[in-house]
Amino acid sequence: MFISNLLQVATPAEFVRTFGGKRVIEKVLIANNGIAAVKCMRSIRKWAYELFGNERAIKFVAMASPDDLKANAEYIRMADTCVPVPGGTNNYNYANVEVILDIAKRIPVQAVWAGWGHASENPKLPELLHQHGITFIGPPEHAMWALGDKIASSILAQSADVPTLPWNGMDIKLENASARAQAGECVEVPKDVYDQGCIKSRKEGLAAAIRIGFPVMIKASEGGGGKGIRKVKSEEEFELAYQQVKSEMPGSPIFIMKLAHNARHIEVQIISDEYGNAISLFGRDCSVQRRHQKIIEEAPAVITDPAIFEEMEAAAVRLAKMVGYVSAGTVEYLYMEGKGFYFLELNPRLQVEHPCTEMISSIKLPAVQLQVAMGIPLHRIRDIRMMYKESPFGMNPIDFSSPKNPPRPHGHCLACRITAENPDEGFKPNSGTVQELTFRSNQNVWGYFSVQASGGLHEFADSQFGHCFSWGEDREEARTNMVMALKELSIKSDFRTTIEFLITILEMEEFSHNDYDIGWLDMLIANKRRSEKVDTMLAVICTTLHIADNAIQSRYNSFRAALERGQVMNLKHLSCIVDVDLCYDNIKYTLQAAQTSHNSYHLALNNTSLEVELHRLNDGGHLVIYGGNSYTTHMKEEVGGYRVVIGGKTCIFEKDNDPTVIRSTSAGKLMRYLVSDGEHVDKGQPFAEVEVMKMVMPVCATLSGSLKFQQNAGSILNPGTILGILELDDPSSIAKAELYTGGLPDCPTNTHGRKLHQIYRHTLKRLENIMAGYTFPEEHFSSILDNSVKLLYSTLKNPSLPLFECEELLSALSGRIPVHVEYDIHDLLSHYSNHLNSIVAQFPGQAIASVIDTHAASIDNKEERDAFYMQTQGITDLVIRYRKGVKGHLKSVLYTILRTFLSHENYFTGGPYDKCVSRIKEELKDGDIADVLSVIFSHANLENKNQLVLKLLEEVTQNGNKMSMLTDELKAILEDLANLVGPKYHKVSLKARQFLITAHQPSFEMRYNQIESIFLAAANTEDHICQAKYHQLITTSIMMFDVLPCLFYHNNIFVRQAALEVYMRRSYISYTITNVTAQLVLPDGTPMVEWKFYLPSNHPHTDLKTSHSSTSLSSMKRSGTIPKIMSISEDLAYFGRGGHHPENHQHERLGVMAAFNSFDHLHENFDCLMKRYADYGEEHRPLSREGSSHQLLPAPGSSPESSSSLLNTTSSSSSELLNTIHEEKQVSEPVHIVNLVIQHPPHYELDQENDKRLCTEFIQSKENELRANGIRRLTFLTYKKGHYPFFYTFRHRIGWQEDSIYRHLEPALAFQLEVYRLKNFDIKLLQTSNHILHLYYGTAKPSSASTGSAVTDSRFFVRSIIRHANFFTKEASFDYMEREGVSSATAFESVGQYFPCGKR
To answer: Does residue 1194 surpass a pLDDT of 70?
Structure first.
């Protein structure tokens, strides 16, 4: 027994006795499904709990079709008993009165509740139930027919003097209807009178429409819910609309009514009992409609004039009493401001929007319906008494016609129907499953749904599956509450919903100002007004991520499943790159997506790229972090495209479909074709009708052409079923999507932080992900890898890195460790921070460890001591990582990355792929299959992993002393890398060998310091030791051309002059040098070197071949016949002459070399340089040091006697040569050369093409001067500190264009490479990382006999100059072999770079 408001009621039987009822109802059959069934059970159970203290006091029996069972419908779960019924359309189940009666009798039940739709308006249902003693919770059959039938209700309304719109039966009236009603008689519409209001044929209907005047409405008398009603604007549209109405409501009478303009749809809710009492429960405004079906309702109807609304209420009550109506019903009007109202129809059932009335009246209508069915008078129902401000359980009658306390609505309520319809396709219904449904209700917002997660809607269900309501003190508050509720409503499903469109409507100014009519929404749809759309590029990005991630995950899962079955799939199934094509608004987007880690992707579009962070949600969605914002996204692949929802907003991308193939976009039934098979149809013309979720929808032709049917009328359709194929009139009419040429937005995602240690961790993680098998788009991989490796090294070498890491750990431990320990560590870090720039600064790791150990030693309790160590474990690990300083940590990181590479790739050497996989499974059999798959996944990205290893080793080569980097651990790893077997590892293997071989070579810094010290020592002395060291610099095999240009700009002018001379002598070591003038300066103090020389006799450009009159030094040394040890000056002079004398037939040549700070600096001094050649041409002797405006001065502090050469190479033999040369004839062919050095500033970005452009522009501006002074060749050496110089050679014989074969090659050394011997080939210089090595790719020149035939002879030519004068010792020979090994390795590496394996 439950006490409610001081009234004790235990059972429904007791309740009926207490409140004057007639029938006890304890078990109810719900002859409905979906939200109707859900709402009924929730309302009555709430009432039962309030009254009986037991929500199950009333039992519910639900009808369940196979389709609802499959869809996991919510109402089935809520019911007490479930009875299976046949599937299919509702005429087999919920609308079949015989089935309903049979179940009601079998269970049995005391009452049947039909709700709305299905059989709720079929008078046969209450009639049969009453015949079998079962109560129908609704009106009796005669009242249902009289008011539920639209024709009969219209006749009754105009007979009761209620205004009606013009219709085909507007002259029909019942005699004395009002008087008979006042006398208590139930007025009925005789059949012969009813027939007068029915349209019997299309012809009769068209005549009535013409008489009434277009536009008109064709309506089925038994229609409702938007079905059986069509608007017709002209005679041409009438036939099709008439047929559609007949198809939607077969067997229903039809009538024609005038279409009202600028009207509002107003409803009056009535409730009546069997004792003749009828009341109005305020009104509702349902003017927001599409296809004449309500989508938004609100109560009360504030748009109406209060006085007129009272008339509308009175007319509704009058009609109910006239026919003896019982239970809840709704009278619908069209209201036109300034013109009054017109009766539309009466619905003899509960309306789906009835909760609006409940919220402003506090009456639970289904519970009131049940009580009325029990025979309880209206004045004894608690909710009604409270609305009239009477005691809840009083017994006194209430004069409802003139009450003491007229009821007033409380606040304002808005309702929105949630339907499975596509607003972008004219609200076309669609079915499918629901993965997630989340609605956040509160005291002012609530909703109910007929489906839940894992449920769904089938093709025979009603498209409405939810209803949301909001309450407010006024209309604006209710609107605001509803907008916020809809924005928080989350539905993940296979079908589109109207949620976004509802939000758009509610936020429009017309709705906010309550300024619209029943045609407003249809006008918006016709104008293609859509809900707010997401940013297009954001949608492209999110959709690409969904497609790519689904594809990659699918391939990965397939590979794993095959692996578990013992099968081995191709590695391409583990590819992390997906090409995606999307089409939106006739714009085609072609992207490439690469998975760069488990939670990130790199997108590429038209040479632009973007990194996006992605997190997978449990419901199949993604959390995308992009551009500083995060978005929750879900995607569903549909028949014609992809539907993606981003933050509650939907975007549809089309697939590349054939427009000549017309498919069904949803499940349903093909009702009929509107044209003949093979008949011509125009674009947009309806050619068939499909029933989808109780609605008959037209199917229109996509293009003009002849249509061939592919299905028969009556066929059941699935999404994607082909309905017809078009043979186009004009195939060129197919619209082709325009290719998107823009790029991705420049919105970098930075979730890793910008501090040094955060950048380090992010960069290291990126490289570890590459090593794990992830990748980047092909066109961006190299640049990303290059930048990442450089960034990793720069952060690793930064002494602040351990400082930031330690401070981060301390911030997390603040307050968790003793204060003095924290302070002591902070003091150590502060001291280190203040001395970061000191050469001897070392991270105080040992001191920090000592602080921790000291405090731990003071803790006596073992558990507390262990807890302290656990808390400081992070700091201890940091100290261990940096125990050998920052450099040691760098080596450790490099070792770890290379070790990871080997740990995976060792499985794949020395055997076929499938055997290797078997070996992995055997060795990892104790682990999870995921461990095996991770190794294979990593190997699938071997090419990029190889590039990473090569780049890491290359960066070490460029940025550090390899010898100092070569720890025992690294040496072992590199040896393992060098021993990898297989063509796919050859690059890594060669690079590792090269690293090991060259690790013992002196570094740039060491070579620079040694050469600088030699030059500085020579500046202060001229002893034989310095001269010998000069000799070594000229002949050494160690690379010098990267160091000498740096010394061209030394602050000591002697060093600069010495560097220029050594560079010249080293370059021209094979030439006959007759005179060197090194201590020369230009007027602005710029040093230069000048030399006179003859070409070697074997040079290809020598005028006549001559024999050497003396034996070269190298040959004498090889034969061991050197007669005596020469003096230093003689020795150097001998080398300056190349060991031989030129013949008289050669012409002496002049060379000049100078180093300038910029091209502008060169322009300023170029005329001075050319003056040297002009003077030489006139005098055939070294220039006078005096008497010229372009005078060249000896270096400060030097004597004229010593200014001719730093090495004092002038001898008697050279003087004799000079006399011989003076007697030779002048030649017109240019023979002189110029070498110019240009230094780039530190901030300059190295760019070979820009260098070439600057050089070419200079040459073009000075071409006349060069020709006039007999210049044969001019070479630019462009240099930036820390980089190997670039060489660009321009020649007179090719019109002062660059000789590209000699790019980055000192021309004086070129003939030693014997490139001229390749005259039968078209050769191309290939760049290599080893500057000692020169690699050429040659294709044979076609002979005259084979002109036009394909070239089949292609070769690689490797050239290198070997500088080695002593092979007598074992050590020297070993050094030589080491260098040769390096060169060979570099050659093969370079060949592989230009022609990868499988292509050469």
So the answer is: no
DSSP tag of 534: P
Higher pLDDT, 110 or 930: 110
The beta strands (E) that lie in 713-783 are given as: 716-717, 722-728, 738-739
What string of DSSP letters covers 773-807? T----HHHHHHHHHHHHHHHHHHHT-TTHHHHHHH
Instruction: Show the beta-strand stretches assigned E in 420-462.
Output: 421-422, 428-429, 432-438, 445-449, 456-457
1316-1339: per-residue pLDDT in tens? 777 788 877 776 666 667 778 888
pLDDT surpassing 60 at residue 194:
yes
CB 723 within 8 A of CB 664: yes
Q: pLDDT tens for residues 342-378?
A: 998 888 999 889 999 999 999 999 999 999 999 999 9
Q: Is pLDDT at 982 greater than 90 in this prediction?
A: no
Name residue 1363's amino acid: R
Alpha carbons 584 and 576: distance in angstroms, whole number: 25
Q: How far apart are CA 1107 and CA 801, in angstroms?
A: 66
| Tokens, residue 1094 | 């003859």
1218's tokens: 């000079």
Distance CA 229, CA 235 (A): 16
Measured between alpha carbons, how far is 1207 from 1128 in angstroms, rounded to an integer?
A: 9
Rounded CA-CA distance 1003/962 in Å is: 8
Distances in Å between the Cα of 1094 and the Cα atoms of 377, 1136, 1271 are 131, 11, 15
What 8-state DSSP symbol labels residue 612?
A: E
Residue 943 in tokens: 């090419």
Q: How many CA atoms lie within 13 A of 1031 on its CB side?
A: 19
The percentage of the chain sitting over the pLDDT mark of 70, rounded to a whole number, equals: 86
Look at strands 1232-1239 and 1271-1279 and give their pairing.
Answer: parallel
pLDDT in tens, 1129-1183: 333 444 444 444 444 456 789 999 999 999 999 999 999 999 988 888 776 544 3
How would you label 1113-1148 residue by residue, b for 16+ Cβ within 10 Å and e otherwise? Answer: beeeeeeeeeeeeeebbebbbbbbbbbbbbbeebbb
d(CA 323, CA 1079): 127
Per-residue pLDDT of 599-626, as tens digits, reads: 999 999 998 989 999 999 887 889 998 8
Instruction: Please give the Cα distance from 1074 to 930 (Å, whole number).
Output: 75
Q: Quick check: 1298 and 1288 in contact, CB under 8 A?
A: yes
For the annotated catalytic residues, the residue numbers are 349
Encoding tokens for residue 1185? 């040091």
For 301, 302, 402, 411, the CA distances from 267, given in Å and listed in that order, are 8, 12, 22, 18
As a whole number of Å, the CA-based R_g of the chain is 48
CB 944 within 8 A of CB 575: no
Between 304-308, 335-339, 380-384, 1125-1129, the lowest mean confidence (pLDDT) is in 1125-1129
Mean per-residue pLDDT for 177-190? 77
Contacts of 237 (CB under 8 A, 6+ apart): none
CA distance 560 to 548: 18
If pLDDT is split at 50, 70 and 90, which confidence band does 281 have? very high
Sorted by sequence, the CB contacts under 8 Å of residue 867 that are 6+ apart come out as none
- Please name which of 152, 153, 97, 92 lies closest in space to residue 124, comparing C-alpha atoms: 97
Q: What is the largest CA-CA distance in the chain?
A: 154
Residue 806, CB half-sphere, CA atoms under 13 Å: how many? 27
Supply 449's token pair: 């749904």
Q: Is 93 helix (H, G, I), strand (E, B) or coil?
A: coil
Residues 6+ apart with CB under 8 A from 496: 420, 421, 422, 423, 424, 430, 643, 650
Helix 1053-1067 with 1004-1020: angle, nearest 10 deg: 110
pTM check: above 0.85: no
SS3 758: helix
